[in-house]
Amino acid sequence: MGRGEAAGDFFKDRGMDLVNLLTNALTIKDNVMKMYLRETELYDEDQYIADKMREPLEDALRKAWDDGCDVAILSHSMGTFISYDV
Known about the structure:
Number of strands: 0
Strand content: under 5%
Largest sheet: none
Number of helices: 4
Distance between the termini: 16 Å
Low-confidence stretches: none
Order of helices and strands: HHHH
Helix content: over 70%
């Protein structure tokens, strides 16, 4: 594992720590928020789901690479996990 991968894993793990902390801190009335955070948990726990979430970005980047295009990725929230992994 290279330094970049180790740093990426560190920040991904901290992001998951934050999600777990927030999930545990929520009360019963906040089930809606838990439902949205579940997507992040599934991404971390289920490789099939993670692969399916990364696939559209991977395909777009491969096409851009093949076409010789410059690419800039702007992401937010869950998209940040996905784009960093891709």
